[in-house]
C-alpha cells in the first residue's frame, strides 16, 4: 500500500454535543457473526489528535468475525495523540488495530509502528487490542509491533496500564498468540504504578476446558520511566490453562538490561 503523504489528518477540538465518548477510526468494519470479512493491504497513517474530553483513536477497528491482514498486510503508523481529559471517568485509549465483539477473529501479518501519546492524562496505548471474544478463540499471529510510546496511564482498567504491544481484554473463549515481534515500547510518563507490557491478558475464561496458547513471540526493548512503582512485564496472563512456550523476552528499564 502507498504511503499517505501530504499534511496530517488533524482533529483539534473539544466539541462533544452528545456528551458521550467519541472515536476517530481510520477503518471501521462491522461484520457478520458467521461470515468472515477481510481487511487487508491498507495503510493508515499520518494522524494528529488534539482533543479535550473522552476521545478514543483506532487505526483499524473491526467488530464481528473479521480477518485483519490475512489477504495482505495492513500498516498502521505515524499517529500522534495529544488528547487530554480532566474527567476522572474518562478513559482515553489509542489502538493500532482493535477487534471487539464475537470471537474467532484473526489479526495476522500486520505492522503497527511509530505511535505515541504525548499528554500525561488518563490514556493507554496498545499496538493490537482485542476484547470480548465470546464465541470462538481469537488468533493474533505474525504481527510486527514497534516504536510505541505512551505518557499516560489508564487508571480504571482491570489492570491499570500505560502501554502494551498486544492487549487482550476478557477473551472468554480463549486466545492463540503466535510468532509476533514486539519491540521498543516506552511508558514515558512519571505516573506511579504505570505498567508497560509486551503481551497482556486480563480476565479469565469461565470454562476450565479452554486452553490458551502463547508461543514463539519475540519481545524486546520495553522501557518504563515511571518515577516510582513502575512495572515492566514481558507476558502477563490471568488464571487459567495457559500453554506458554518458545518465547524470547528481553526487557529494558532505563539503563538496566534484563
Protein architecture, described:
The protein is mainly beta. 0% of the residues lie in helices and 54% in strands. The chain contains no helices and 24 strands. It has strands at residues 9-13, 22-30, 37-39, 43-51, 55-63, 66-68, 75-81, 92-100, 106-108, 111-117, 123-131, 138-141, 144-150, 163-169, 175-178, 181-187, 195-202, 211-215, 218-224, 231-236, 241-245, 248-250, 252-253, 256-257. Strands 1-4-7-10-13-16-19-22 form an eight-stranded parallel beta sheet, with no helix packed on it. The chain has a seven-stranded parallel beta sheet with strand order 2-5-8-11-14-17-20, with no helix packed on it. Strand 23 (252-253) and strand 24 form a beta hairpin. The model is unreliable at 14-20 and 253-258 (pLDDT under 50).
Mean pLDDT: 81
According to DSSP, the number of beta strands is 24
Helix count, DSSP H or I runs of 4 or more residues: 0
Q: Could you tell me the strand content as a percent range?
A: over 45%
Unreliable stretches covering 5 or more consecutive residues: 14-20, 253-258
Largest sheet: 8 strands, parallel
Principal-axis shape: globular
Structural class, from secondary structure content? mainly beta
Strands of the largest sheet, in order across it?
1-4-7-10-13-16-19-22
Gyration radius, in Å: 17 Å
Amino acid at each position: 500500500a502507498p504511503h499517505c503523504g501530504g499534511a496530517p489528518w488533524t482533529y483539534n477540538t473539544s466539541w462533544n454535543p452528545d456528551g458521550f465518548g467519541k472515536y476517530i477510526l481510520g477503518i471501521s468494519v462491522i461484520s457478520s457473526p458467521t461470515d468472515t470479512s477481510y481487511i487487508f493491504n491498507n495503510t493508515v497513517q499520518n494522524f494528529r489528535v488534539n482533543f479535550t474530553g473522552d476521545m478514543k483513536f483506532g487505526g483499524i477497528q473491526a467488530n464481528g468475525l473479521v480477518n485483519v491482514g490475512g489477504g495482505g498486510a495492513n500498516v498502521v503508523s505515524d499517529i500522534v495523540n495529544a488528547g487530554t481529559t480532566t474527567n476522572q471517568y474518562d478513559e482515553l485509549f489509542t489502538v493500532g488495530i482493535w477487534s471487539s465483539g464475537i470471537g474467532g477473529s484473526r489479526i495476522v501479518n500486520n505492522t503497527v509502528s511509530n505511535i505515541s501519546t504525548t499528554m500525561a492524562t488518563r490514556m493507554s496505548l496498545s499496538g493490537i487490542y482485542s476484547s470480548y471474544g465470546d464465541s470462538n478463540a481469537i488468533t493474533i499471529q505474525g504481527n510486527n509491533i514497534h516504536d510505541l510510546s505512551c505518557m499516560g496511564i489508564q487508571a480504571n482498567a482491570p489492570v491499570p496500564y500505560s502501554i502494551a504491544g498486544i492487549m487482550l481484554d476478557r477473551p472468554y473463549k480463549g486466545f492463540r498468540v503466535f510468532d509476533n515481534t514486539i519491540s521498543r515500547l516506552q511508558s514515558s510518563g512519571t505516573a506511579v504504578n504505570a505498567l508497560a507490557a509486551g503481551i497482556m491478558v486480563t480476565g479469565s475464561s469461565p470454562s476450565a476446558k479452554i486452553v490458551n496458547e502463547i508461543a514463539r513471540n519475540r519481545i524486546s526493548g520495553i522501557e518504563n520511566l515511571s518515577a516510582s512503582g513502575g512495572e515492566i512485564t514481558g507476558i502477563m496472563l490471568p488464571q487459567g490453562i495457559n500453554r506458554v512456550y518458545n518465547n524470547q523476552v528481553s526487557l529494558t528499564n532505563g539503563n538496566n538490561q534484563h
